[in-house]
Amino acid sequence: MRVGVTDHAVEQYRNKYLQYRRGEMTDEEIRAVLARVVERGRRGRRLPDGVWEYVLDGLAVVADDRNPGNITVITFLGYRDWRWWWRRKETGMRRSPKVLAAL
Fold first, then answer.
1. Where are the chain's structural domains?
2. Helix (H, G, I), strand (E, B), or coil: what is residue 67?
3. 35: how many CB neighbours lie within 10 A of its CB?
4. Is 70 strand, coil or helix?
5. Residue 54 buriedness (CB in 10 A; 0-12 / 13-18 / 19+)
6. Average pLDDT over the chain, rounded to an integer
7. So which domain of life are we looking at (predicted)?
8. What is the 8-class DSSP label of residue 95?
9. How far is CA 69 from CA 7, 65, 66, 82, in A?
10. What pTM was estimated for this model as a whole?
11. Is the pLDDT of residue 100 over 70?
12. 29-55: per-residue pLDDT in tens?
């Protein structure tokens, strides 16, 4: 099984994870981390367009595995705590009194 990683996934990893962890990694190190999520992680929920979410140690990626033997990591979704915070923030904003009053 070959695992490929898009440039978009590497960029999202930098923006969503390394920026807050104050870490420095090369593109190849990031590609290795994202590939390991697919290889060792568990296959989570199915997403639109036939792609799957893979999760390992709280890190989640979206991968296209429709081509047998080749898996492509499309994007990095984020770390579990960050994703939880983002969902709470966005849901709270949509239901806030200011937003409801504007409708």
1. 2-102
2. coil
3. 19
4. strand
5. buried
6. 84
7. Bacteria
8. T
9. 20, 8, 9, 31
10. 0.77
11. no
12. 999 999 999 999 999 889 988 999 999
Sequence-distant (6+) residues with CB within 8 A of 16 are 76, 77, 78, 79, 82
CA dist 50 and 60 (Å) reads: 17
Work out the percent of the chain whose per-residue pLDDT is above 70: 81
Q: Alpha carbon of 43 to those of 20, 29, 54, 57, 96: distances in Å? A: 26, 22, 5, 13, 34
At residue 103, the 3 state secondary structure works out as coil
Residue owning tokens 């590939």: 35
Which residue type does 8 have? H
Helical H runs in the chain? 7-13, 19-21, 27-40, 80-94, 97-102
Phi, psi angles (nearest 5°) of residue 33:
-65, -45
